[in-house]
Amino acid sequence: MITLETLLVGGLAAAFLPCAAMGLSLLLGVPMSERRSQQSAHAQAVVLLVVAATLITAHVTGEGPRELRLAPLIEAHGYAWTPVFLLDRLSLAYVALVALVHPVVVRFSIPAFHRESGAQRYWFLVSLLALSLWLVSLAGNIDVLFVGWELVGVCSVSLIAFFRHNLRSTENSLRTLVYYRACDAVMLFATVWIHHELPSADFTQFASASSSKAAAAIGTLLVLSSLAKSAQLPMSPWLHRAMEGPATSSAIFYGALSVHLGPWLLLRTEPLWGEHLLPRAACGAIGVSTAVYASLVGRTRPDAKTAIAYAAMAQLGVIYVEIALGFERLALVHLWAHAGLRTWQFLRSSSLIQDFQANPLVGADVRLRTRAGLWRGLVGPELERRVYLAAMRGFWLDAVHWRSVARPTLALFAWVQRMEERALGAVRREER
Amino acid sequence: MQTRVGTELDAPGDPRARVALAIGAVLAAVLWMLNEPLELAAAWLAFGAWTVWRARASATPRLPLLALVGGASGGVVLLAPHLPQWALAGCLVIGAGVAPAHLWLESLRRSLARDEFALVLVAQPFAALLHGFVHAYPDALEPQTLAVLQRVFVASALIHAGLALVRREPERVLGAVIQSQSALVIAGAAAGETGWEAARMLLASTMGSGLVLTSIASELRRRFGALDAASHHALAEAAPKLHRLFVVCGWTFVGLPGGLAFFAEDLLFHALVDQSVGATVGFIVAAGFNAIAFYRLYLALFTGPAVHPPHPTSATASWKIAGLTLAVLALLVLGLLPSLLVSHGG
Q1: Domain, as residue range, for B290
Q2: Which of A132, A371, B157, B279 could, after both became Cys, cross-link A151 (CB 3.0–4.6 A)?
């Protein structure tokens, strides 16, 4: 009799093995053939799909929510890092999404990466992403979630820099990492605080800890930590830069799975902070402002991938608002539907023109209709022109971040370095 | 401003330089093996004498005055543990090369050959000194002094991590990241039993990863000449093996899950938060800066437009690649099985 524990551990091992094989082969400089890499990724996708289907069946047929606790990886003086997994409706909903989207992306990637230099690197990163997403989805405590969360971030920045001879790709990859690390630092602090203040870091205990004094503050930190992954204001400017990566990875990261981790984190931790106004208000305000911002900026983008990215950002803002208003189930359904739509749009973005010309349903004479009549009537042409110009420049968000955060930080440390040089210069003169 | 470093001794294959480096490595190893304060002080001073000897033998021979002060401070700590708390703390801060008292280390960097300075960083003699001191005199430092020292070390980690963001020479970027991690190790060591366990893990990670990364940087310099972290060199195709080792080791070094540093930092955060929320925040920010600094350096060295592909002067010896690969694999295995390095205290 196969138990749920065996199935779960087997599923994670199945996700881990292709990654480990491809990773080791890359590290040791013994490259796999293209076919072998594809087969590994394909096998991983199929096995994960089967395991997900079995887990969901077991849950639906009466197993109910289950918490699975493995042996601690590390124990020292009262501290233990224990892998805990949670099988409930929420985790299985995201696992199902991952299990369905991942094989589609793998299928689309096979022709896209045929004879492409660095294809094995791509397959390795996509397989590692699948493993990371499983860890995030099934995490039963904040520690396991953080591991998957970090790995998703590293896969994301590595894939943005996939075309490593392209200078813009590498620069955008670094920028994305900066946004991710800023929010990961907040999440790490929230994690440490959870361990410090709450009786348990397990998600099943969050509801009983919601009356804790720290719950509102921790909840607010969790809202802030979710912003970079979901490109919500003010951590939005990286998303259009991430489009430098391959279209298939854009689909899985920025259309389907990675960008939805923010709302998913909020849904998962909502029992802890849901009763408090501060995190809800923060979540709602961020969602509304991002929806408006992305909607305006997205209308000024000339290329398909960037326009879709901004459209996704706007919808994510709406999902944040739904969570803030307490419509968790609606948010989950919205998340699912949105992920499916964006995956399809990103995957088809490369052949958009052909779709418009050849699709008999759309027809060759399709034109994007302008629906600016009402808007123009409300705001007037002058204000409309100003808003359009501001949206064209992304409301100067990049410049604001650079001037208010990045440049002062770098200037401070450049000053420290100059002081160091000056002090040592004086010492050297004395020595002479 | 880029500064000149006494690197003319770096001439590859110079047997005297190799012997000198081997002597330094042996002295550093001895430093880690001793526990008795007198023996440790003797080993510390011997290591200091080695650095002075090498500095005097450099292309711009001069006495590293600041380094002498730093070395002497370390010796004082071991030989006079009953000094007033402020004096002990001051000597420890100077001896450990904590910012801004790290200038003696920076001065030493300018005097020593690159490989020799890399040894000073990777061997972590400061951690050995502090470990030995606390082992020999467990009650010498009062809790308040320890708390102050902890904050000073975290601040130092933050400053070094910030410096890594603005430095341009690859070895200096790595040096700043290693110094930042070392300061975090020492800050953790001051955080009770859990902190000791975490510090031990982070120390192993820092020494192992520091060795691999500085060796790769040194090898790249030997093969491709001076490199600058402010521009792109696109070396991924020209040095594929070094590229792979650098990226894997670098990510694990800065705390990616799967590496030893991940669990060490996690454990350290939990140890620190009990003592100081401010220090924990500083620690987290420093760790974030270190990751950004590493990735910036990685992108600069190995990516970018290959308009003028560099021509390597010689290949990397296969024994070097094998050694570095083994070190990276060991770090990965320890990252997956961290309990191998932790005693299961109650």
Answers
A1: 142-346
A2: A132
